[in-house]
Amino acid sequence: MNEINASQEIEIIAEGTNEWQLYQLRKTRNEYLQLTDKYLIPDYPITPENLEIIKTYRQYLRDFININQEAILKGLIPEILPIPL
Q1: Residue-wise DSSP of 8-67
Q2: CA-CA to 8 of 20 to 30 Å: which in 30, 40, 56, 85?
Q3: Residue 4 has pLDDT above 80, yes or no
Q4: Which of these, 32, 71, 30, 26, lies nearest to 54 by C-alpha position?
Q5: Who wins on pLDDT, 34 or 17?
Q6: For residue 21, what pLDDT band results from cuts at 50, 70 and 90?
Q7: Taking residues 53-59, what's their average pLDDT?
């Protein structure tokens, strides 16, 4: 049985354009989630209103792929909204 390392897996994904787009969107989504992690730290100076905006945005990011997956796999690539703050 052949094992597939991470670089081979990416090459396999890259063979299918729509799957590659899905992979790239997930990667971007994960980067935005990481960038907004700091806002959720209890000591971070953020207003309650802005904290709610960030929480809503993070939920949007989590839901984005699931809501758009069928369209993405058909080649329709939606844009992920940037961080709202």
Answers
A1: HHHHHHHHSHHHHHHHHHHHHHHHHHHHHGGGGSTTS---HHHHHHHHHHHHHHHHHHHH
A2: 30
A3: no
A4: 32
A5: 34
A6: confident
A7: 94
Residue identified by tokens 């997930």 is 26
31 close to 82: Cβ distance less than 8 angstroms: no
Q: Tokens in use for 71? A: 């369209």
pLDDT, residue 59, reads: 93
Packing angle of the helix pair 48-73, 17-36 (nearest 10 deg): 170
Task: Judge contact between 22 and 53, C-beta under 8 A.
Answer: no
What is the C-alpha separation between 83 and 72, in angstroms, rounded?
21
pTM of the model: 0.72
Give which of 2, 76, 85 is closest to 38, Cα–Cα.
Answer: 85
> Please, are residues 25 and 32 in contact by the beta-carbon 8 Å criterion?
no
